[in-house]
User: What shape does this take?
Amino acid sequence: MAAKTGTVYLLASERNGTLYLGVTGDLVGRISKHKEGATRGFSKRYGVDRLVWLEEHPRIADAIVREKQIKTWRRAWKLELIEASNPGWLDLYERVVHGG
Assistant: This one.
């Protein structure tokens, strides 16, 4: 049986706004739940539903390790991570859904 892939992702409420870091084996499904407000807790409470950064891994275990690493980072480092690949803080969700 093949190992399940994983994605580490960052959501934001707005540019330089509140951030949420997560990991999932189903990025499209997970982000759609954030956008629908179906995920109770932090992201729903603070309106954090804009996908601004993601990193794919061949194994979910690797993605979990990476998520734990990034959780220890200072906020400034997370902002730099986003700015490096998405300087306009665009919502990447539609690109992920439609493969663009």
Q: What stands out?
A: The chain has a mean pLDDT of 93. The first strand starts at residue 6 and ends at 12. Strands lie at 6-12, 19-24, 50-57. The chain is about 45% helix and 20% strand.
